[in-house]
Backbone:
């Protein structure tokens, strides 16, 4: 059972005049917005005025001058990307920019299974033979020390653009663009890799192609996909990119994306702006599936393809990869779930290592297990000499800082507070596991590991209507750092319960006020509530039970009709006072 916690109420200034439901005002203030000006900018951000100057990055001028030189000398340039949706979209927008600028640039995305994450020494050798003079990384590179030095020895300059955790020592690169870098100068630290790449794109257009700078807006479809996929907070500039990017996505003319939508039966068109869930659950997983099952080049080639027939072939292959990814993930989750329930029942961190765990899904599995058991989780594929793994964490643990304390035992590591990747020699695995377990155990000493649900506010049933929903929707786009509001509605009774789907995974409820009054229309109102994948969780609830519900209050449009739907987050039997 999850613990229900209510946000502390914040006093709203009396001079606040923006017309919003009191619940929505409270949500905005509780999320750190303290003035009417800030709230107005949050609800209606302006792309022209709210976009930050890319030259606030302290080394952006140096980057621009090196790219200008590459263009003038007709040098060979490599864009070195990553194999996830963030890295793929980053690579695509930078490639588009260089093509427009007239720079001879190719994209290189490593094979996750054979090369691993980030720059590698073998790739540097390949670039030397190909006559490359400049490497620009996107979504990686901040820990590529040896690779940067080797490139320098070969006379190849390296520019790093990244957004991951910055180590104490930095690679000896020509320029580094990373908002977490000390004395970086950029005021917004939470950009995704594609966000950093887009700031580079903006800077290139501003200095080298100012007459075409309006074109950059049409890249926001890819910027929004990469930003949403990487689960960075949807606040500040990220919110700006995603809000406008989803509009561009609804109008996209990218042949590859259109074929992806068709093959995957994903409804994206100009009739309605898609929400972040559509990207998170349908678009991003398909793009990520390429690197997990095959090679990320498949997804990259799909995105940049201009021929419909070839794009359809790429989309069909990507769909097959995604189906395979789902199957493999389910199998590994089942195996590790059993391990977690037994061997790791009394431990604060779950560690699973096996030579048969596919490297392509270890991150996905770690995320699912961490969420399932509310414990930091590490899943490793054991190789002949070394093992590679992914970590997913919980809010109480900054996993990259914890791993950093064991860095002397590792070959390579990098990531964020809640997700990280590691390479470790097999003869050091036992020492690493023991050291990290001790660190985590100490950090979580005395802390009960139970999941928590933060309640944004409570409403009476009489307040639930389309006006409230309209005000809630002004908070979109929802995502990490700006979650869809979780609202408490108390003292309802279950009138009807019905399982949905062939496997009865989903469940639908019809709810009304527990206290009936035939003369009161409100007490006779019936609300439809649905719990996706909640069939097992709410199996014990039955008709006539009096319950409290945590939900997202939404509008459901179907066949031209709109109705109110309560999307269930959690339910429990009411505590009668």
Residues:
């Amino acid at each position: 059972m999850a613990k229900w916690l209510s946000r502390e109420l914040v006093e709203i200034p009396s001079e606040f005049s923006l017309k919003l439901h009191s619940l929505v005002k409270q949500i905005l203030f509780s999320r750190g917005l303290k003035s009417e000006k800030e709230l107005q900018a949050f609800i209606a951000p302006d792309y022209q005025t709210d976009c930050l100057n890319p030259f606030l990055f302290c080394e952006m001028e140096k980057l621009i001058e090196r790219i200008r030189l590459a263009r003038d000398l007709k040098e060979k340039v490599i864009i070195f990307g990553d194999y996830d949706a963030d890295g793929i979209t980053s690579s695509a927008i930078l490639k588009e920019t260089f093509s427009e600028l007239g720079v001879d640039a190719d994209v290189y995305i490593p094979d996750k299974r054979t090369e691993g994450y980030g720059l590698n020494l073998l790739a540097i050798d390949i670039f030397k033979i190909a006559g490359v003079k400049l490497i620009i990384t996107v979504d990686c590179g901040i820990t590529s020390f040896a690779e940067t030095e080797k490139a320098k020895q070969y006379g190849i300059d390296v520019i790093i653009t990244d957004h991951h955790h910055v180590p104490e020592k930095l690679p000896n690169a020509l320029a580094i663009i990373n908002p977490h870098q000390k004395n970086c100068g950029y005021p917004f630290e939470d950009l995704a890799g594609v966000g950093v790449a887009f700031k580079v794109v903006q800077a290139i257009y501003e200095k080298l192609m100012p007459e075409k700078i309006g074109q950059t807006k049409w890249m926001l479809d890819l910027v929004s996909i990469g930003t949403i996929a990487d689960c960075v907070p949807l606040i500040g500039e990220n919110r700006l990119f995603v809000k406008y990017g989803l509009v561009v996505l609804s109008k996209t003319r990218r042949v590859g994306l259109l074929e992806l939508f068709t093959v995957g039966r994903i409804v994206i068109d100009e009739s309605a702006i898609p929400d972040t869930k559509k990207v998170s659950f349908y678009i991003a997983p398909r793009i990520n599936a390429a690197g997990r099952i095959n090679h990320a080049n498949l997804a990259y080639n799909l995105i940049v393809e201009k021929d419909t027939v070839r794009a359809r072939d790429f989309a069909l292959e990507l769909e097959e990869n995604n189906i395979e990814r789902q199957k493999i993930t389910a199998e590994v989750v089942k195996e590790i779930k059993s391990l977690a329930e037994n061997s790791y029942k009394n431990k604060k961190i779950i560690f699973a290592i096996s030579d048969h765990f596919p490297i392509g899904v270890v991150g996905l599995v770690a995320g699912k297990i961490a969420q399932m058991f509310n414990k930091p989780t590490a899943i490793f594929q054991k190789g002949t000499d070394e093992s590679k793994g992914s970590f997913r964490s919980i809010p109480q643990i900054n996993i990259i800082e914890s791993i950093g304390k064991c860095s002397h035992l590792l070959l390579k590591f990098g990531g964020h507070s809640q997700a990280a990747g590691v390479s470790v020699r097999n003869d050091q695995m036992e020492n690493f596991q023991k050291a990290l377990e001790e660190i985590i155990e100490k950090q979580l000493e005395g802390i009960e590991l139970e999941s928590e649900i933060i309640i944004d506010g409570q409403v009476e049933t009489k307040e639930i209507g389309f006006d409230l929903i309209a005000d809630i929707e002004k908070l979109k786009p929802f995502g990490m750092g700006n979650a869809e509001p979780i609202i408490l509605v108390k003292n309802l009774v279950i009138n009807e319960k019905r399982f949905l789907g062939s496997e009865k995974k989903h469940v639908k409820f019809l709810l009304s006020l527990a206290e009936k009054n035939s003369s009161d229309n409100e007490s006779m109102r019936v609300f439809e509530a649905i719990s996706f994948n909640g069939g097992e969780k709410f199996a014990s609830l039955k008709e006539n039970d009096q319950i409290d519900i945590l939900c997202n209050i939404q509008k459901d449009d179907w066949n031209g009709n709109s109705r109110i739907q309560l999307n269930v987050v959690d339910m429990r039997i009411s505590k009668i006072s």
Summary: The mean pLDDT is 93. The chain has four domains: 54-245, 251-324, 343-443, 453-573. The chain has 18 helices and 18 strands. Residues 343-443 form a domain with the Diaminopimelate Epimerase; Chain A, domain 1 fold (CATH 3.10.310.30).
